[in-house]
Amino acid sequence: LLPGSTMRTSVDSPRNMQLVRSRLLKGTSLRSTIIGVIPNTSDPTSDCDDLPNLHRIGTAALAVQVVGSNWPKPHYTLLVTGLCRFQILQLLKEKPYPVAEVQQLDRLEQFTNGHKSEEELGELSEQFYKYAVQLVEMLDMSVPAVAKLRRLLDNLPREALPDILTSIIRTTNQEKLQILDAVRLEERFKMTIPLLVRQIEGLKLLQKTRKSKQDDDKRVVAIRPNRRITHGSITEDEEEEEDHDDVVMLEKKIRTSSMSEQALKVCLKEIKRLKKMPQSMPEYALTRNYLELMVELPWNKSTKDRLEIRAARIVLDNDHYAMEKLKKRVLEYLAVRQLKNNLKGPILCFVGPPGVGKTSVGRSIAKTLGREFHRIALGGVCDQSDIRGHRRTYVGSMPGRIINGLKTVGVNNPVFLLDEVDKLAKSLQGDPAAALLEVLDPEQNHSFTDHYLNVAFDLSQVLFIATANTTATIPPALLDRMEVIQVPGYTQEEKIEIAHRHLIPKQLELHGLTPQQIQIPQVTTLGIITRYTREAGVRALDRKLGAICRAVAVKVAEGQHKEAKPDRAEVGEGEDCKEHITEDAKAESISDTADLPLPPEMPILIDFHALKDILGPPMYDMEVSERLSQPGVAIGLAWTPLGGEIMFVEASRMDGDGQLTLTGQLGDVMKESAHLAISWLRSNAKRYQLTNASGSFDLLDNTDIHLHFPAGAVTKDGPSAGVTIVTCLASLFSGRLVCSDVAMTGEITLRGLVLPVGGIKDKVLAAHRAGLKRIIIPQRNEKDLEEIAAHVRQDLTFVLAACLDEVLNAAFDGGFAVKASLEHFNSKL
Ligand code: ADP
Question: Where is ATP annotated to bind (predicted)?
Fold first, then answer.
């Protein structure tokens, strides 16, 4: 800080903070706003607490403004104006902030009545004044600050000029320090004149080059190296030059890249603009990012397909157990690709519950084709710009996920897996499904235009595969473009095989275990499947196996650790290690086994006790027979996006005026089914001898009925609960129990016919999982049974019903005889 100049400085050392707090902020007099500013000549990196050696000379300053802030750390920012030089005579105290006795060096009289000095300095100061004027006039006078400076030059005493100009022109700290130390005016003038001259020369050169730059861009490049010689003041220009080199490089890359003609044209136009743009403009960065993306995109870089159906079959079979139908369709699809050598055709969409291997089949397809794989998660995407990019006019605009994906994989023929297309949402920002249409349509996607790129990109080589949990929520137009392949859930046997062939080896590898260290027999796997998971896929099973491996890893690691001590190594209580322990000793055994070293040759066997230790008590129990212990309950089969489920439908009646109450978040179709069921039962009440509580055949006379569908938190809809509601109500009105091992599904009509429904395979698997034995399905669904694995079919009895009579007969032990009641009537007559 030199007298006459102003600067903003930040203080954060404890000493200075104290000074600000107790002097500047507390003081009320003018005196208290004046502080001494001394250049810090000590090494800025040395971080010691002591007061550094103070420079001999400093500047008294007026603190004009104090601003405090806590971020990023507590500090004050001071705006200080230099008044005059002082010299330190003696340091009075150091703490809490330094106070010293000083002597003022510059004095006002020196400036005002110093005729003598003027004479002495006459020539020097005149010379200085001339240079100063020359310098200021080289600047742009239209800037108000420059005009003001020009006026100041005339009005200020000449003696004040060296200080003021030194703080304006470009100087090093060292030079400034020299000026500060130059207490004698003569010396000060002498020192500043060369600095002024240097600045003037620099400016002259700059102006010259500016002019020639306008004439001819090329010459600038030639002149620039010379300018380096006039070091000091042109660092900014150097940066600009470097940047210019970058732009030239970029242009070269654009020209050599293989982008389409249209894209090339756009890029060249942009680069032309970029060259003219000052780099500080926000648009500069935008344009540059855009051009870099254009260069990076794989315009015609692709991997070579190595498609051989036989190899593909092997890869698919090796990676996935079961799912025959899916694998067959995928192979067909690939075979057609091989023969026809182009990709136009329907997009495959795998639909099924979570964890049935949809994503991993997609990955295998990429592997068989030798293509890159990229997954695009669409769950919850509600903005079409996510697919198609933002226009470049927006701040923070970027390309959509498709283009981003291409950039990531770096080739133009990857396999893109559009995950969860059923979870696309609509919002004010447009409909992403509509944007996807363009991507997926083989007629259109060879010229897909991302809003950010604004030029067409050919997507026709990309292989798209979609996955979804349900087709119900896929927008119809999108569904229309895809070929849906249902991937149903697995049976218990399939799950066991998958676990032993794929999941367990994978988990072992993941946890650094070997089959010699852990053994999971098939019964244990079955136990996990039935008692710890209830799902259609194998994801929870995979997680549980992971938990087991983790627990075993701890024991194995501990065992290894202890084995290092030879005296304990032969404690061969293998039984304990195997965790063959009685129930009551179990609690101890956990800690016991942890303490025992494990003989390395003995694998840890995971049996039911170990399972209970590791996974806790079983989460699911068979509850079927318990819940069917009173009339008015029947088991239905439902289909959900997560696979099949069994559902207990409950009914009760009470005095009332014939109202039907339905609970359990039912959709309209389901409510109508309930009304249908009641109507049919009322119209057939006599035939089946169904009565209300007071013995009347009018079932709703003085009676209210309540029907409840459990899992009340989940919305349910669909017609397939019809037969279950009828059975449940028939049980309620007849007072008979429904067989506890029978489940049913089917839509009903008012005339008592049973119509076919969907999702039979999932529903049957759910019933099988729950341990039910008989399943009533609509007769017209018979063909669906073929898809069900033979061993599951063996375990179950299927009743094919065409009308409700058959359903009721099958649902109740000994049948729901109509004949008996007819005879009864006969005898009465
Ligand atoms: P989805 O995409 O259907 O939700 P994933 O593809 O993520 O399911 O599959 C979950 C896990 O289950 C994966 O680790 C996968 O390898 C495994 N998996 C699923 N089905 C099979 C199968 N049939 N054979 C082998 N592993 C399978």
Answer: 352-359
Of the candidates 630, 634, 610, 728, the one whose C-alpha atom is nearest the C-alpha of residue 677 is 728
CB within 8 A of 582, min separation 6: which ones?
none
What average pLDDT does range 492-503 have in this prediction? 90
- Sign for the CA dihedral angle at 358, 360, 362, 364 comes to negative
Residue ranges in 457-513 assigned as alpha helix (H) = 476-480, 492-498, 504-510
- Per-residue pLDDT tens digits for 533-589: 878 889 999 999 999 999 988 888 887 655 444 443 343 344 444 444 344 444 444
Q: Which CATH superfamily includes the segment(s) 309-486?
A: P-loop containing nucleotide triphosphate hydrolases (3.40.50.300)
Residues 722 and 636: their CA atoms lie apart, in Å, by: 9
Q: How far is CA 205 from the centre of its chain?
A: 54
Ligand 1 near 485 CB (within 6 A): no
Does 346 or 466 have the greater pLDDT score?
466
Rounded percentage of the chain residues whose pLDDT exceeds 90: 12
In the residue annotation, 407 being an active-site residue is answered as no
Number of neighbours of residue 39 by Cβ within 10 angstroms: 16
Q: Provide the CATH topology of domain 490-555+600-621.
A: Helicase, Ruva Protein; domain 3 (1.10.8)
Q: Is 353 in the pocket of ligand 1 (CB under 6 A)?
A: no
What is the Å distance from ligand 1's center to 782 Cα?
A: 29
Choose which residue among 325, 330, 356, 510 to substitute to test ligand 1 binding: the one with the highest number of ligand atoms within 8 A of its C-beta: 356
Residue whose CA lies nearest to ligand 1 atom number 25: 320
Percent of the chain with pLDDT over 70: 84
| Residue 618, both tokens | 């079983």
> Would you place residue 227 in the very low, low, confident or very high pLDDT band (cuts 50, 70, 90)?
very low
Please name the residue whose Cα sits nearest to atom 22 of ligand 1: 320
The CATH T-level fold of domain 623-811 is Ribosomal Protein S5; domain 2 (3.30.230)
Whether the Cβ atoms of residue 742 and residue 637 lie closer than 8 Å to each other: no
Mean pLDDT of the chain, nearest integer: 81
CATH superfamily of 5-43+52-108: LON domain-like (2.30.130.40)
Q: Does 355 appear as a known binding residue?
A: yes
The first and second tokens of residue 525, run together, are 């796997």
CA dihedral (306, 308, 311, 313) positive or negative: positive
What are 125's two structure tokens? 């100061």
Break the chain down into helix, strand, coil percent, rounded to 5. Answer: 50, 15, 35
Alpha-carbon torsion angle 744, 750, 756, 761, nearest 10: -20
Contact by Cβ (8 Å): 760, 784: yes
